[in-house]
Amino acid sequence: MSDDPEEGMLSWDESVFRDEHVFEIDYVPETFKHRETQMENLKYALRPAVRGSRPLNVIARGPPGTGKTTATQILFDELTAQTDVQAVRVNCQVDSTRYSVFSRLFAEIFEYEPPSSGISFKKLFSQITDRLVDREEVLVVALDDVNYLFYESEASDTLYSLLRAHEAHSGAKIGVICISSDLDLDVIDALDTRVQSVFRPEETYFNKYDQGEIVDILKERVDRGFHDGVVDAPVLDRVAELTEEQGGDLRVGIDLLRRAGMNAEMRASRSVELEDVEAAYDKSKYVHLSRRLQELSDSESALVGVVAEHEGETAGDIYEAFNERTDLGYTRYSEIVNKLDQLGIVEATYTDVDGRGRSRELTLQYDADAVLDRLAGE
Ligand SMILES: Nc1ncnc2c1ncn2[C@@H]1O[C@H](COP(=O)(O)OP(=O)(O)OP(=O)(O)O)[C@@H](O)[C@H]1O
Ligand SMILES: [Mg+2]
Predict the structure, then answer these.
(1) Ligand 2 centroid to residue 167 C-alpha, Å
(2) Which of 174, 287, 291, 341 has its CA 20 to 30 A from that of 299?
């Protein structure tokens, strides 16, 4: 050890990060461990498409942050690069109606946006299928976060159109992968019977990673993202432990690593210590919440805000406050309550109000201050 007090300290032009980009949300990892079975299942279902036949349909389920989107993205990138198959992933959080799902498909296939002047669904649909038939191409559609189509009651129509495409447009070959992280949702059961009768999907389950697997996967990020010796084994173990505490969602672990790295830099330290991880956890543990709040509409956010501000008050008072803020009536209010309940942001339970029938009590599923901070854009 030298006596130099600057040793172990970062200078301005130094960083603990080798490549901070590996901690970003849309980074596709170079290696994808512990998902061999799921990848095999998906490949098995998609293989007919490569031979020019209609692929098998799939339901991929599992808790948040278990690699469902990544698995699909990796396979779709391979298909697009190596075959003539058209593979399109639709984020149903963003495109949550049948019309917008098909607009997205159109945009991806034709490489330009459909006319915004209000082309009919029928026309949009037949332009897509005509093109597939003309070019003898097979289309694979991943409806990612398909649960959002259910919350908007658009799932049955969307699936029906996709699954019956070959009947309406002879020769069109389309396969569907439905991805859901809502474990309370039984996808098949929640569809109309007319859809159930044409939907016999393969199923593949993305189980939670255990702590050893989390360490193994995050080690790879650490090696790519940080300089040598910045994150040692006990620190990585702690990150994995906290990730497990948050349901094994790898996003928590990745976010923890990035924030802990930034905390170390703030202390001008060359290494990430346990204290940096603990300090980061206060923010990182809310990655689910942030992600869910981001995609809400203005009126949905307004209701979350009202519930957070009026915690513990009666359902009646909450509705009044919501109505005052948004001018929306009881029907819309009820619909939004249902959606927020399905998303796990609030819990709506029926309670008997003596003699006056039942009313719905709303309880926030997260810390109210954490919710309000995030709504305020922090
Ligand atoms: N086996 C793995 N190897 C490397 N990185 C992984 C692995 N599994 C997941 N990840 C990373 O974890 C993060 C979350 O993964 P992903 O988005 O695929 O989860 P998901 O199952 O789609 O979650 P959600 O249901 O919330 O959408 C991503 O940043 C991804 O790169
Ligand atoms: Mg996903």
Answers:
(1) 31
(2) 287
